[in-house]
Design a protein that fits this description.
The complex is a heterodimer of chains A (408) and B (242).
Chain A: H1 3-12, H2 16-56, E1 59-63, H3 66-69, H4 79-88, E2 92-106, E3 111-119, H5 121-127, E4 134-137, E5 146-150, H6 151-157, E6 164-170, E7 177-188, H7 193-198, E8 199-203, H8 204-211, E9 220-225, H9 237-242, E10 247-251, H10 252-255, H11 257-295, H12 297-305, H13 310-346, E11 353-355, E12 358-360, H14 370-396, H15 400-404
Parallel strand pairs in A: 3-8, 5-7
Antiparallel strand pairs in A: 1-9, 1-10, 2-3, 2-6, 2-9, 4-7, 5-8, 6-7, 11-12
Helix pairs in contact in A: 1-13, 2-11, 2-13, 2-14, 11-14, 13-14
Chain B: E1 2-4, E2 18-27, E3 35-45, E4 50-54, H1 61-68, E5 76-81, E6 84-85, H2 91-101, E7 102-105, H3 117-128, H4 132-145, H5 161-174, E8 179-183, H6 191-208, E9 211-216, H7 219-222, E10 227-232, E11 235-241
Parallel strand pairs in B: 4-9, 4-10, 7-8, 8-9
Antiparallel strand pairs in B: 1-11, 2-3, 2-5, 5-6, 10-11
Chain lengths: 408, 242
Amino acid sequence: MPLTMKLAFRNLFRNTRRSVLTIMLIGFSLAALILTDAVMRGMLTLMVENVTGTISGEAQVHRVGYREDFDVDLFIENSAEVAKALEQDRAVDHYTSRVISGGMISSSYNVTGGMFYGVDADREQHISKVKLALIHGQYLTGKRGELLLGQSMAELLEVELGDRIVITLSEVLTGEMTQALFRVSGILEFGMRELDENVVFLNIDEARKVLGLTQDQSHEFAIKFVDPALAKNPDTAIFKKLNDAKLETMGWLDLNTQIALMIEMSGFASLIVGMVLFLLASLGVINSMFMSIYERIYEFGVIKAIGTRPASLSRLILCEALLLAIISCIFGMLLGYGIGSWTAVNGIPMGEIEFEGIAISNNILTEFNRVQFIQFPFYVTLLTIAAAIYPARFAARIIPTEALQRSL
Amino acid sequence: MTAVTTNTPADTTATPVITTREVCRYFGDDEETMVKAVDRISIDIEPGEFTAIIGPSGSGKTTLLHMIGGLDNPTSGVVELSGTNIAQMSGAELSDFRRDHIGFIFQSYNLIPVLSAEENIEYIMLLQGVSAAERKQRVNQMLEQVGLAGLGGRRPNKLSGGQQQRVAIARAMASHPDIILADEPTANLDSKTGIALLDVMRELNEEHNMTFVFSTHDEKIMARASRLIHIQDGQVEKDETK
């Protein structure tokens, strides 16, 4: 082992208590950064699952301009062709078509406004959580007059399973008001206020009939890919194939700009958390190094007097910082991995929080990533060494005669 | 015994290993409060001399040794070691010069506490780039010469004061310097150990013809020096060769 490293290693444990405290300070900071990032990643995964798995799917096809005002007149005219293209694309795992319209919904006791989703019962269960959200009654079977609505809407309308519901919509082409009678066949609970209070689900054929649409007309196709990452790539084949002057296909990131913004912000948040943590840790390193230097100032005077160059003395201090960083990183990574492994299985209970209408009610499962165990320790090591530069320069500038005056 | 009077270099035909000419070291800028630690000292020390700089506390012994050792720069005057004017050297050049030409022995031993006796002796040779085999050979030789054979693996805190100072002597000599400067090397030792240590230094001086310059105010120690330079108030009061 080179002398400088040997000296640095032994010096590091001359004051074990101080070194251990500094190692804990840096190690805890690294562990905190790893866990913060792991929680952020877990939360984003949960949010993305909620965003894509609840209703929207990983991508959607609409008529160009539909999403601006959700204008029912802007429907997809050639649903069969779109369905065929989706069917043929091997990257597409599942897809479903929908008709969507706003309208009034009345019970014997109350009336409220809402969104009506006409869905293909079989295909829908592979895309959204409608079937999973069922808490009473039964899922859509394709029979006439079936309707699913959220628990909150059911309470507002004071209806139970089997009760009659009248929906009032305007026909797509004529704009004429039209009414239809349904019976509550199931009650849903998504855990999302917007869905539980405002949305009802009907069989797509009946919905088309009420709206005056043909079998080939839909407002939306929702898609689930074999590889979810394809939804984020604008060059995905199906996007290019379907997009034309009339149709637009978008992944969930484009459909949910707030979530996209939050994902972008989460990286920034990690950066800020990291900077604050390491500013504190750096101050700790500087303090620890200075205390160590002040304790040995006379010794440094002697070392310089017998012929050690200032640069060699700087190198010694930087080596001590490097060793401190390496030991701290090992400690921090083990701690972060230990805690993160437990929370990756058991989760962090967050209660029920809602962000941009997306409910996060499950425990957040922390997620590890190689960045946490390669880049973060690398930055920590770099910062620790950077924090030691000032003390190292100070040590290099020690004047032997002044240092030696303590006992001479 | 010859007595040479103040502030004049010894008259000799050999090339001095240490030469100071009108060396001054003043502290402070204000004329009234200025301390003249060393004031116009001119001395020549020949190779192989065993010289003691003596004088009361505050007389300027340590300051003079520091300037001779290149640890401090004179306010004015010239310090030459083996014909080289060290005042003109840069910091790194001075470090290298000290490493290769000067051995230091300090009052408080000042070994590196985290290194063993062997490693302390080896340290300066590592700085010099001496090969591992030669380092080992020199370490063993030095430990034997200072009477510490078998104790090389001990760290300073496991050695007595006298033993630590012997290690310091071995460290100073291991680099094969031209000059060894010792600032009150026996001050922290009892009288018996101090004299024994001086005997070791004297033996090494005679054996290797190495120049020793040390400061002291202990009369028993002075008795073993071959030359005594008396300093009072920063000036050479008397320079006597036995």
